[in-house]
Amino acid sequence: MLTTLLLAATLLGSGPETTDPQKTDLKTPYEKGNGNQTATYEEAIAWYQKFDEAYDEVKMVPYGSTDVGRPLHLVIVSTDKDFDPASIKQKNKRVLLIQNGIHPGEPEGIDATMMLARDYMQNKKLRKQLDNVVLAIIPVYNIGGALNRNSHTRTNQHGPKEYGFRGNARNLDLNRDYIKTDSRNAQTFHEIFRTWDPDVFMDNHTSNGADYQHVMTLIATQHNKMNPTLAKYLSGKMVPTLYEGMKKDKFPMVPYMNTIDETPDKGIVGFMESPRYATGYTTLYNTIGFVPETHMLKPFKQRVQATYKLMENMIETVHRDADEIGKLRAQAKQETLKQKQFPLNWQLDTTKVDKIPFLGYEAKYKTSEVSGQERLYYDRKSPYSKQINYYNTFNPTTTVEKPVAYIIPQTWREVIDRLKLNKVQMQQLKRDTTINLESYYISNYKTSPRPYEGHYLHYDVEVEKRNLPRQFFKGDYVVYLNQDANRFLVETLEPQAVDSYFNWNFFDEILMQKEYFSSYVFEDLAADYLKQRPELKKQLEERRKNDPEFAKNARAQLDFIYKNTPHYEYTHNLYPVGRLLKDIKLPL
């Protein structure tokens, strides 16, 4: 029985061999409690300050601010006392970035990481694994949510006694903010991420959903979205190693329970994380990403233990494969520089399925005491072990060929600012100039009827390509696609990409027509245009014939003619970002 194995799991704590003679009290708030308490934000930062003071190999650095006005800290554990990211890279060391508390109501990573970092300093055997690995830790990412502490908002969760809130100080879900970057938290994260360029990223969470025996589930970066070189290593070596290690540690894992049906019995689907999510964003820069999701209904103590053990296995794996990971990332970066075609949207391939072992509970139904209707419950007295279907193959549905460069009018400041945050290399025109390039007209799109994270998201975007001479001005930006941000640029500046800046409403001004016509005035002009342009008259007649509603609508017919005359503003629905397809000399 899995429950028996879990109760027998190794207790956490530093080993008997210590390299630190100091007697600083580095017991964490979690360890001082009864296994059902998580550190507050203030307690976590105070503990890391003591940790910093106790070890020369540890440094806590405040980066930029957050929406609640508190700084976002990064804790670096570097056994040779080198805290310069450029120098660390030159030494061919791997950087593992661990992030906690993006959803502060899911706090086990906050507590497990404090104990883990301390133990790797104090235990000689563990410390050895940091010879070629540097730990970079964000103690609490969503500080505003962590300060909004309560005992009720995680309705489906078993402990801890108190915890933070999912939304940040602006009520944003920060795990939907990586591309749109509305929060100061995300702005500061980009500074950390692009400065440290981590090889592996780990963002600790707790799951919602079905009930089952597993304590830990795992989202690994969706392999079809990754550079093939890294995807082969991730799926063929790294992920199996983590699964084997967790099984050995009495915490057998399963992929995140993204179920097809109400229960897991009919199978699960791999999580296709778009760039709005943490690992969707980090993948754009060829960083291997993981989102551990412990099971909400397991006791908090078990969830902390499982998170600790997974991080321990992660460090051991990165230490073992440090040289290989470094070489593969370097290769992936070079391949991304040379890559011509970039997929923008994906669809699940239901013809490809794997079988995976799953430890579940029988799903049953009974009459609800609330509604009197049939309700689901999981019978923990009826555990089972069986193989279930796992669908984890996605095929691209929309692909684009990268241009030589994008040209972005300087007026779109929100977009330019986000590119700067991501350290995108940009140049500015030194004088006004007309450039022939490929432009998009937004020909169709849909918009969500309700706000999502402060935006009314567009989707199912269709574009019409046109080659146009366009006027650009001194100070407008030219962004060449010969840099490590290539994929980030494509997925933000191509309007059809699922998390493009167009879809996040940063270009909505172009969708509104500014000039119109008075029907009684335009009637005579329209008649003249039809006389002068027989082909336009023929198109109008065909439209009337095929569309009865159009044939009854005089204004619609005038509008059809209007939009085929010079009077109609050519900028309506013209996507502002131009695509330069040939490398021509520009005034830079």
Brief write-up:
With 588 residues, this protein is an alpha/beta fold.
Low-pLDDT residue spans: 1-21
Distance between the termini: 68 Å
**Cα shape:** globular
Broad structural category: alpha/beta
State mean pLDDT (0 to 100 scale).
94
Sheet of most strands: 9 strands, mixed
By DSSP (H or I, 4+ residues per run), the number of helices equals 18
Percent of residues in β-strands: 15-25%
Kindly provide the radius of gyration, computed on alpha-carbon positions and rounded to a whole number of angstroms: 28 Å
Strand element count: 20
Helical fraction equals 25-40%
What does this structure look like?
It is a single chain. This protein is of the alpha/beta class and 588 residues long. 32% of the residues lie in helices and 24% in strands. The protein contains 18 helices and 20 strands. The chain has helices spanning 2-7, 29-32, 41-54, 85-90, 108-122, 124-128, 143-147, 184-196, 228-248, 278-283, 300-320, 322-338, 413-421, 486-493, 519-532, 534-546, 548-552, 554-562; strands at residues 58-65, 71-77, 94-99, 133-138, 200-203, 205-206, 216-220, 254-255, 268-269, 288-294, 341-348, 354-367, 374-391, 394-401, 405-408, 427-428, 433-447, 458-472, 477-480, 578-580. The strands form 5 sheets. Strands 1, 2, 3, 4, 5, 6, 7, 8 and 10 form a 9-stranded mixed β-sheet that branches. A 4-stranded antiparallel β-sheet has the order 16-19-15-20, with no helix packed on it. Strand 1 (58-65) and strand 2 (71-77) form a beta hairpin. Helix 9 runs antiparallel to helix 12. The model is unreliable at 1-21 (pLDDT under 50).
